[in-house]
Specification:
about 240 residues; alpha/beta; Rossmann fold; 5-stranded parallel sheet
Amino acid sequence: MRQTTTPVVAVDGPSGSGKSSVSRGVARALGLRYLDTGAMYRALTWAALRDGIDTADAAAVGELADRVRLEWSTDPDESWIRLDGVDVSRAIREQSVTSAVSAVAAQPRARARLVTLQRGATEDALAAGQGVVVEGRDIGSVVLPDADLKVWLVADPAVRAARRAAEDAAAGRAPADRTGDVTSVAADLARRDAADAGRASSPTVRASDAVEVDATHLSLAQVVDAVVALVLGRSAP
């Protein structure tokens, strides 16, 4: 690892495992930048739906990825993403986007474009004398194979579904009482897991040198503390 102040940390894992919350917490605790790569794929999906593009059309989705302009925040306390100057931070969390994002993420040309942007954001952080926490599904295995620390974040499927349902309710994306919807959330997470793991281009897979962190029985603060300890441990003499 370069220095404690400039680590590159890759956080991967299945849908609903808590990658975003944990990654933001780690970045905040260590004064690092934060990059949500999933938001980039969601923004591209939102654009495809807006333009009436078939998300299974590899050429059309790839052309769209080359054409649109993405901007994003790397401040863990100020999360936003813009597409062609439009703030789509809330729109990309709608169910229509969630249902289609795996299809867009499976398109090789689109992935290649976004991977280039993700690596560029990492290089920008290092050039500014900062480290970065990058979260997604192929960060340690494809995007940043030389990351100083790779974390594979997991949790029991039932726990993941309950947490995602609660997050949706808190964000106003669903009724406050999600009790009857946890089963459907679990089914949606399982569908996305299967799609992401089975795609031909950069499938979701645990990097061989990733450290597994199981968040099933831990609070968010405990998971953040565990990952922070791993980062600091890698930088110890």
